[in-house]
Amino acid sequence: MMLARVADSLYWIGRYIERAEHFARLSEVMLSTVVDQTDSARQAASIVLRAMGEDEVDPDAALSYPIGAVRNITLDREEPGSILSSLAAARENARQVRDQITTETWERLNLLYLRITAPDAESWFLQNPTGYLSEIIADLHLFKGAADATMSHGEGWRFLALGVYLERAQLIARLLDVCFGDAAGGYLLNEHFAQLSVLRMACALEPYLRVYGAEIEQRHMINFMLFDSDYPRSIRFCSARIEEHLTALSGRIEPLEGPKPERLAGRLAARVEFADYDEIAEHGARAYLANVVAECARIHEAIYETFVAYPLEERLPA
Predict the structure, then answer these.
(1) End-to-end distance of the chain based on CA atoms, in angstroms?
(2) Residue 226, Cα to own-chain centre: how many angstroms?
(3) What is the pTM of this model?
(4) In angstroms, rounded to a whole number, what is the distance separating the alpha carbons of residues 16 and 19?
(5) What pLDDT, in 10s, does the model give residues 87-118?
(6) Would you call 203 helix, strand, or coil by DSSP?
(7) In a domain, 156, yes or no
(8) Helix, strand, coil fractions of the chain, as percent rounded to 5
(9) For FRET with 172, which of 188, 205, 215, 295 sits at 20 to 30 Å CA-CA?
């Protein structure tokens, strides 16, 4: 069985890496959409800010000086949710478990960290902010590819992947809630530009078009980002991977009292697999998505109780 502190570090590497990539993509979309200075651009900026939890930031202010808003999201060392802070936390966790990850994985993360914390990082960003964010996203893809291709697919790799998919499920649920929840206002129903922007925020535009063609509708967007079994950022895909990794990890330890993380994950996976758009339309998207987020939070708590913060005497041999 893997040491609790090692499992914890690998799990949080996955979460921080996924968070950094998601925020980088949202920021990149916002920069490219606000160029037009239209109502559609303002709506896209509002979606990005709310999806990041920056509800107090005025979309009009972000629209008037988008580079300043994105600069804070990207490079602010004092902001816990910034891309830099997420990468710094991921790198520190990786440093603590350097012997558990491969050289290729460590070097990719370390090089990205050194570049984003370099003295001239801000000048590079200001010269070409969209390109700067695109490079961050590309490097994070390379990190995930290196981890998948060079790490043994045992406990360590599973904890890292578990963190990625649990974080992704929560972030996509938050994005969908901002767009289609009760507080969204329904503007996405008739705003084609904003719909395209949302699909780009979830890295879903091309996969969506291959399934539904050029017909972009709220029903299809919800179906795709929630229930598509092949799209790797859908809630259904993520919940299936969470269940898969937790089932494999739980088989390596003695069961404890309390909620079983693999059972909670299985419940979420089944709920998403057998739901459909009509159910959401009947009960409201906000309630459904809030339940997904709450289920993910319970899974996270159960992971900690089972693999990290368990009583020591319960793991000692009799």
Answers:
(1) 16
(2) 14
(3) 0.92
(4) 5
(5) 999 999 999 999 999 999 999 999 999 999 99
(6) coil
(7) no
(8) 75, 0, 25
(9) 215
